[in-house]
Amino acid sequence: MPLSDAVQHALAVTKRGVDELLIESEFAQKLARSEQTGKPLRIKLGLDPTAPDLHLGHTVVLNKMRQLQDLGHNVIFLIGDFTSMIGDPSGRNVTRPPLTREQIEENAQTYFKQAALVLDAEKTEIRYNSEWCDPLGARGMIQLSSKYTVARMMERDDFTKRFKAGTPISVHEFLYPLMQGYDSVALHSDLELGGTDQKFNLLVGRELQKDYGQEQQCILTMPLLEGLDGVEKMSKSKNNYIAITEPANTMFAKIMSISDQMMWRYYELLSFCSLEQIAHYKKVVSEGQNPRDIKVAIAQEIVTRFHSKQAADDALSDFVNRSKGGIPDDIAELSLSGAPLGIAQLLKQANLCASTSEAMRMVDQGGVRIDGAVISDKHLQVQPGTIVVQVGKRKFAKVTLTA
C-alpha cells in the first residue's frame, strides 16, 4: 500500500541512528496498515535483569523505544526473569553463569523504575517472560526445541568460534535464543529492538513466529555505545560506564571526560537534538569553536534528562570550579585517628584509593593534593588537623585527623 507523509516521517524517525532495520519494506507496510486501521504496532524490548543498574549504553535502545512510543505505538518492556536463569551467551566466549531467582527478583525491582526515566511509564506495558515460559514445562520445551536445528543454531558467530576453539558449549545455551524468540510469539510482536549483538536472537523470534502461523516481526538493531575509554562497549564490568542514577555532578564530569571525537558518537546515539542541530555543531567546531563548548551542551542535556535543569546548571558550575582547582561544596567529611599517619594509609582509610600501592602510584604521578598543594613525598607523615585531600580530578574528602 502507498506510504503517506506521516508514515514516511515515522519511518525516518525509526531509522535514525539504527544499525539495521530488517526488513524495512515490511516495516513500512506495517506502519501504513497501522495508520489505516488505527491499530498501534506492538513493539518489544527485552532486558535481562543481570545487574541492578542501567547505564547510558542501555538507553540507546530505550531512546528508540520512546521515539516509537511518541509515534503512538504500544511498547512492551519485557523483563527476562526466566531467560536470566539460563544466561545469554551473546558475544561471550565462555558460558555465562545463570542468576538465582533471588538475584533476578532483586535486580528486576529497580529495572523499570530506571527505564521509566526514558519511557512514558503510563503508556508502557510491562511483562515478565516467566508468564509464558514457566507454563511450557518439559513437554513444551521439547516441542519448542524441535522447531530449530543444531545447524541453524551453529550459524551464530560466537557458537561457531567456541566450537572451533574447542571451548565447551552447554546444551542449555541453545535454549536462550529459542526462549527469547518464543517471547515474540507470546507477545505477537510486530517489531523487536536490541543491540547489534542480539541480531541472531531477534531473527530466531522472527522464524518462530512463522512456525506458529503468525505474521513475522521486523527487527531493529541499535549500535553498541562505547564507554568512557572510547574502545570497549559501555559495561559495568569494564568500569567504563555512566549509570543513569549517578549523581548529577559525577554524570556531568564523566561525559566531559570523553574524547572530542567520541563526543559525536554520543550525540548520534544519546542526544535528542535534531540532525540539523548536530550538523551545525560539527560545522562550528570545524570552523574553530572549542569542542568543549559542544560537549558541555550534551552533558547538560543528559544530566537534565535524568535529573533536572537546575542540577545540570549546578553540575556545570561544579565542573568549572574543579577545572580551576577549586574544591566542590558537597565533599565527604570523615574523622581518622592514628596521627601522624602515612599518606598512603590516609588515602586508603579515606576511601580515596583502593589500596596503599594505588595510593603510592597516585603520589608518584602527582595526582594527590592536600589543601590544594601537590604531594610528591609518598612517605609523608600527615600530622593532626583538618585537611582537604584530593585524588585525581574528582575525588575529594575533608579529613579530620587526630592522634
From TrEMBL:
Motif 'HIGH' region, which positions?
A: 49-58
Q: Which Gene3D superfamilies match?
A: HUPs, RNA-binding S4 domain, Tyrosyl-Transfer RNA Synthetase
**Residues holding ATP:** 236
Give the EC number.
Answer: 6.1.1.1
Where found, per UniProt?
Cytoplasm
* Chain ranges for the short sequence motif 'KMSKS' region as given in the UniProt record: 233-237
Task: Give me the Gene Ontology terms describing cellular component.
Answer: cytosol
Which molecular function terms from Gene Ontology are attached? ATP binding; RNA binding; tyrosine-tRNA ligase activity
Q: Major location, coarse class? A: cytoplasm
Which InterPro entries does the annotation name?
A: aa-tRNA-synth_I_CS, aa-tRNA-synth_Ic, Rossmann-like_a/b/a_fold, S4_RNA-bd, S4_RNA-bd_sf, Tyr-tRNA-ligase, Tyr-tRNA-ligase_bac-type, Tyr-tRNA-ligase_bac_2
- Catalytic activity annotation: tRNA(Tyr) + L-tyrosine + ATP = L-tyrosyl-tRNA(Tyr) + AMP + diphosphate + H(+)
The record's section on CDD domains has: S4, TyrRS_core
GO biological process terms, alphabetically, are: tyrosyl-tRNA aminoacylation
Mind telling me which Pfam families this protein's record contains? S4 (PF01479), tRNA-synt_1b (PF00579)
Keyword list, A-Z: Aminoacyl-tRNA synthetase, ATP-binding, Cytoplasm, Ligase, Nucleotide-binding, Protein biosynthesis, RNA-binding
Enzyme class, spelled out: ligase
Record domain RNA-binding S4: where: 341-402
Q: Which family does it belong to?
A: Belongs to the class-I aminoacyl-tRNA synthetase family. TyrS type 2 subfamily.
Assembly mode:
Homodimer.
Its function? Catalyzes the attachment of tyrosine to tRNA(Tyr) in a two-step reaction: tyrosine is first activated by ATP to form Tyr-AMP and then transferred to the acceptor end of tRNA(Tyr).
Listed PANTHER family: TYROSINE--TRNA LIGASE, TYROSYL-TRNA SYNTHETASE
Q: What is the protein name given in its UniProt record? A: Tyrosine--tRNA ligase
Record lineage: Bacteria, Pseudomonadati, Pseudomonadota, Betaproteobacteria, Burkholderiales
| Gene this chain is encoded by | tyrS
